Amino acid sequence: MLDNRLMSLTLTDNRGFEADQLDLDLDDADGKIALPRRGAVITLALGWKGAAAFPERGIHSGRD
């Protein structure tokens, strides 16, 4: 969980078969966050505490 490090989050839900995009800005001032491996799935769940407003969705890392 990165909730205590999250500075901003933008989810772009593209139409059709175009890939969605997730942009995260994280506070890594202490250098302890490891980058995900290429192709890793990052799961995002949005909603109110205790009741998700949107279903979880997996987004593949496009990191080079």
Strand-residue fraction? 35-45%
Please state the structural category: mainly beta
N-C termini distance: 23 Å
What is the count of structural domains? 1
The shape is globular
Mean pLDDT: 80
This entry's quaternary arrangement is single chain
Q: Spans with pLDDT under 50 lasting ≥5 residues? A: none
Protein name: Late control protein D protein
Organism: Escherichia coli
InterPro entries: Phage_Baseplate_Hub (IPR052726)
What is the topology?
Layout: E1 6-12, E2 21-26, E3 41-44, E4 47-48, E5 51-52, E6 57-60
Antiparallel strand pairs: 1-2, 3-6, 4-5
3D structure, described in words:
- The chain is mainly β and 64 residues long.
- The protein has one domain (6-60).
- Helix content is 0%, strand content 39%.
- It is built from no helices and 6 strands.
- The radius of gyration is 13 Å and the shape is globular.
- This is Late control protein D protein.
Notable features of this structure?
two-stranded antiparallel ribbon; single chain; 64 residues; mainly beta
In short:
The protein has 64 residues and is an all-beta fold. The chain is built from no helices and 6 strands.
